[in-house]
């Protein structure tokens, strides 16, 4: 097990009616920038309830709406400008990962003199940020409890992740009921995203991370148990609650502490989103089984067999290689069962882009679970086409 | 799943050589009260290394040594007095749960005008505390990451737990190497304590806590995997690291959020310790299987069967009741295999005390996993004799 520094300062108010605790925002300041995407937060009740609490708490709030999935650097620039011109104290994100990511970088950009894209390229340039508070309405990215943010510059076909301790929300409201109205496709994509976060930390060459591996399996089993339930019965509270809490625990750093290493599939997916603006979780669900096919080898077989037995309950009677292959098939079938597309073609990706995307990643995966060359990446993309 | 508020503010520096980060204590003040027990921290290197870092950091430190296992309220009174007379800024605990618990209540008592025992009887009276920092040298109680403290008044045969958010350490140093020199008996007792913390949260009637149950199982499997390894090869780093991290995660609130309820076996054990001053983990290891025997019923069988299959890998082929009974036998055999005593008699407890202890608990377990009357408690004690 590697050394690590545990620091998860975000407080979470989890459960039904927890929006009342949004009143705590008044401790952070009186002028709030409320950031959100489209109209979904008006349909699921989060917007009205948040406004009522903010009003009651005596805060003054400004709105920045229209944050896109795969949030744009242009929106960040606009938000940072608003923070400065209105003398904002707190940034409040109401939405899913895109809105929260965008809000985080707005909060940092408001305290930075240069162009916000600098902070996306290099998180260490973030030396301060306005406090961020979130009201989560989609379970997927874990952004509600971590210091990560992914921002796109669509003009340049760039989608990049940044990180800073400064970006960790002060507190987050997680009410599973806000996710009742999510369409099945978004629920499925969210579950795939959560599982992918776990895979990126579960498949590691760091030895001795036994407890971390078991924690990963706990989250994966939760997704497998409740993903289909939430799709079939969208208002099943326990399903929504388990998935929402899984999303936070999958990426609040906990399961990676001591055994984490650089990620793979997320990097490959970011290229897809940057070129085609497809839903992040969809891209991950498509690529993951093909990545697994590619990295399965004599060396990695024991880990995949462990995955198959501990997560999918595959029989001890089979040998490791058989179990490993079955575990990949289970993964593929699970994503398919949730209605997610299986190929890049279905998601609108064209063959001609594959070499361009692979080329951009030629030096990215040198220290990953299984290092991948540009040719390896292209092979995975092509297999997934 | 129930609502919950997640708040785990303690930072942890985990791993080899992390004592260097003790220098951060200088951010909290310049006058430190260093609290510890007997000579073990001088043998395991923690004392010398901590002193060197404190010296280098320019802090001035006073020492309060001799904290007993089952720490005494008298020691707390002495420590609080020292804090006031020396104008202490920070309390630094170096040791295991007893030392940390004692230090926490000292830190609170230093900011309280009345007698410290008030704060043990009622944690809500704690309205402030000096910052607490810990250097952990035994994996067991989880005190390094939570707001709990258990203090005894041996004269009155009282051993009581208190809780306050104010008691949560600001940061903790967890270097598994400091546990290399623990005797086998203490290692085993620590593992039993960790497992008992998990059992108290795993066996719950709150429905829908799927992810919590899986997290519990992750920690239990870690204890089962590495407890025997640490006993056999005390300097196995990964064994010590997994057990140490398990101790923190078992009782930093995480696994109980959303599904926790009042505890049972700890309450029963506190009476043993209060009357006989036996090692907490030993008392828990003795009582746990007998408590399991007692609460196993048609109603609880599915949960015990789940425990047997998911934690002990028992076959799906057996029916629930068979699996449930086997799971209890596995638990009993596991504690025995680590060299822990199986009966209260072995631990020096006399039959004549049992009714007195049971009587003290007559109203304690009315809302537990399975409610227990005074007669039920006595029956468990007698079975364990």
UniProtKB/TrEMBL annotation, chains A, B:
GO MF term set: alcohol dehydrogenase (NADP+) activity; butanol dehydrogenase (NAD+) activity; metal ion binding; methylglyoxal reductase (NADPH) (acetol producing) activity
InterPro entries in alphabetical order: ADH_Fe/GldA, ADH_Fe_C, ADH_Fe_CS, BDH-like
Annotated Alcohol dehydrogenase iron-type/glycerol dehydrogenase GldA domain residues: 9-176
Cellular component GO terms, alphabetical: cytosol
Family annotation (PROSITE patterns): ADH_IRON_1, ADH_IRON_2
Residue intervals of the Fe-containing alcohol dehydrogenase-like C-terminal domain: 187-385
Classification via CDD domains: BDH (cd08187)
Alphabetic keyword roster: Oxidoreductase
Alphabetical list of Gene3D superfamilies matching this protein: 3.40.50.1970, Dehydroquinate synthase-like - alpha domain (1.20.1090.10)
SUPFAM superfamilies from the UniProt entry: Dehydroquinate synthase-like
Lineage top rank: taxon: Bacteria
Name listed for the protein in its UniProt record: Uncharacterized protein
Annotated organism of origin: Aminicella lysinilytica
């Amino acid at each position: 097990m590697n050394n690590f520094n545990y620091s998860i300062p975000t407080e979470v108010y989890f459960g039904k009616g927890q929006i009342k605790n949004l009143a705590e925002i008044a401790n952070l300041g009186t002028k709030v920038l409320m950031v959100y995407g489209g109209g979904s937060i008006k349909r699921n009740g989060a917007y009205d309830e948040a406004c009522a609490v903010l009003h009651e708490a005596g805060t003054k709030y400004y709105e920045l709406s229209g944050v896109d999935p795969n949030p744009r650097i242009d929106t960040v620039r606009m938000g940072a400008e608003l923070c400065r011109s209105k003398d904002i104290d707190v940034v409040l994100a109401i939405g899913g990962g895109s809105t929260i990511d965008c809000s985080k970088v707005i909060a940092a950009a408001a305290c930075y003199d240069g162009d916000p894209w600098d902070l996306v390229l290099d998180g260490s340039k973030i030396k301060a940020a306005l406090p961020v508070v979130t009201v989560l309405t989609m379970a997927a990215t874990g952004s509600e409890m971590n210091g990560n943010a992914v921002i796109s510059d669509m003009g340049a076909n760039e989608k990049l992740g940044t990180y800073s301790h400064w970006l960790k929300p002060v507190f987050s409201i997680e009410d599973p009921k806000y996710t009742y109205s999510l369409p099945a496709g978004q629920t499925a994509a969210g579950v795939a995203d959560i599982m992918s976060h776990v895979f990126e930390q579960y498949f590691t060459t760091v030895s001795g991370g036994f407890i971390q591996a078991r924690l990963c399996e706990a989250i994966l089993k939760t997704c497998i148990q409740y993903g289909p339930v939430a799709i079939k019965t969208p208002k099943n509270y326990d399903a929504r609650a388990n998935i929402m809490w899984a999303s936070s625990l999958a990426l609040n750093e906990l399961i990676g502490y001591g055994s984490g290493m650089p990620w793979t599939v997320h990097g490959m997916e970011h290229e897809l989103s940057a070129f085609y603006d497809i839903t992040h979780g969809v891209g991950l669900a498509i690529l993951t089984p093909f990545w697994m096919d590619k990295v399965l080898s004599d060396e990695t077989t024991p880990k995949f067999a462990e995955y198959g037995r501990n997560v999918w309950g595959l029989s001890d009677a089979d040998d490791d290689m058989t179990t490993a292959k079955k575990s990949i098939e289970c993964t593929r079938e699970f994503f398919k069962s949730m209605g997610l597309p299986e190929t890049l073609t279905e998601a609108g990706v064209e063959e001609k882009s594959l070499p361009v995307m692979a080329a951009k990643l030629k030096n990215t995966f040198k220290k990953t679970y299984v290092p991948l060359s540009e040719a390896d990446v292209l092979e995975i993309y092509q297999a997934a086409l």
